[in-house]
Design brief:
By secondary structure, the chain is mostly helical. The protein is built from 10 helices and no strands.
């Protein structure tokens, strides 16, 4: 007689299966999920390099293309992580397949992780591909690759969790699009991805200091080029602290079934 499988505090096999399923269904739309964001990021890099070249004073004799590349790659990473964590949740709720997930032997934490991790994975892949393609034509010395890996994973996780919160809250596609427009776009253009902080007024510096994307981009820029506009440890602390706070919120929302059940 075969005994039933014992499930401990973590259903590792079920979580792995759920994560693999989420990642594979995104790979089915590789052109939209991977190629589109990378091409859009490279187009941003080209347009901003042409439009703003010569208007920014950069340290160490860096070109403006070098300054732009890590910032645009990091924003592509965070935006993809956000979108690819939110999209499956909205889709599963609208199609009713979320009920299959809720009836599985996965706990709230495992369900949350199963939706967040594919978004993180896609974000890291698209951001890494953007920086890799840019590095083919732009010299990027990369003095601290370990720092880049840290900020890529920490920022990707943060925005994947934020995407899961938006995915839980959104009941239809236009609500998700609204969140993307009024959350991610302001964070992008107030992140320092396209300009230095030297010429900004005090109010602008203050606003950017409250933007977590700024610390992710500044950390990536330090890792890729050796320049920074804020202490790296401060940026790491901000991103890790936000990860802890948002992580608890995500777990709690899944635990109470926030907008998961009809």
């Amino acid at each position: 007689m075969q005994l039933p499988r014992r499930i401990g505090w973590l259903h590792a096999r079920g979580l792995w299966s759920f994560y693999r399923f989420g990642l594979l269904r995104m790979l089915r739309f590789g052109l939209e999920v991977f190629v589109g964001p990378v091409l859009s990021a490279l187009l941003f890099l080209l347009v901003f390099a042409i439009a703003i070249e010569g208007t920014q004073v950069l340290p160490g004799g860096l070109s403006f293309q070098q300054f732009l590349a890590p910032g645009i790659a990091m924003f592509t990473l965070t935006h993809s992580a956000f979108s690819m964590a939110a999209f499956p949740l909205v889709y599963d709720k609208m199609e009713g397949t979320i009920q299959d997930v809720l009836m599985s032997p996965l706990g709230p934490l495992e369900v949350a992780v199963g939706y967040v991790l594919p978004g993180l994975t896609v974000g890291v892949l698209t951001g890494g591909a953007t920086l890799a393609v840019a590095a083919l034509v732009i010299p990027i010395p990369m003095p601290a690759p370990g720092v880049l890996v840290f900020f890529a994973l920490a920022a990707g996780l943060l925005f994947a969790m934020l995407g899961s919160i938006v995915g839980l809250a959104a009941r239809k596609w236009d609500q998700l699009a609204t969140a993307d427009t009024f959350l991610m776009l302001p964070l992008a253009f107030l992140s320092g991805a396209f300009f230095t902080l030297d010429g900004l007024p005090e109010l602008g510096r203050t606003l950017i200091a409250f933007n977590p994307v700024f610390y992710a981009i500044d950390g990536a820029r330090y890792a890729a080029l050796g320049i920074r506009e804020a202490p790296v440890l401060t940026g790491a602390g901000v991103v890790l602290g936000l990860n802890a706070l948002v992580g608890v919120l995500v777990w709690r929302l899944f635990a109470i079934g926030f907008r998961l059940k009809p």
